[in-house]
């Protein structure tokens, strides 16, 4: 597997990808991710934590949230036959 692309993601998405849904997960988060990423959502993993920003006004590229906050990196893996 290799990285297809990376996303700048909010703290909710980072936690959701790492841990799955919890009592703190916004109720529509999974649907928002599915709407934005389609089938790619099944191949999301947390990426290098060296690319974490303490605060950003940029939107979350995973769920689309427009609230400011910390941003981390998620990677979408390309799954398929090895070259």
Give a written overview of the molecule:
With 83 residues, the protein is α+β, with helices and mostly antiparallel strands. The chain has one domain. It is built from two helices and four strands. The protein has helices spanning 11-19, 29-37; strands at residues 2-10, 44-46, 53-56, 69-78. Strands 1, 2, 3 and 4 form a four-stranded antiparallel beta sheet that branches. The longest helix is centred in the first third of the chain and has 9 residues, at 11-19. The chain is globular.
By DSSP (H or I, 4+ residues per run), the number of helices equals: 2
Radius of gyration: 13 Å
Number of strands: 4
Provide the low-confidence segments as ranges: none
The overall average pLDDT, rounded, is 89
Give the DSSP E fraction (strand runs of 2 or more residues). Answer: 25-35%
N-end to C-end Cα span: 10 Å
As a percent range, the share of helical residues equals: 10-25%
Main sheet attributes: strand count, strand direction, barrel closure: 4 strands, antiparallel
User: What's the shape?
Assistant: globular
> From N to C, what is the helix and strand string?
EHHEEE
- Classify the secondary structure makeup into a structural class: alpha+beta
> What is the total number of structural domains?
1
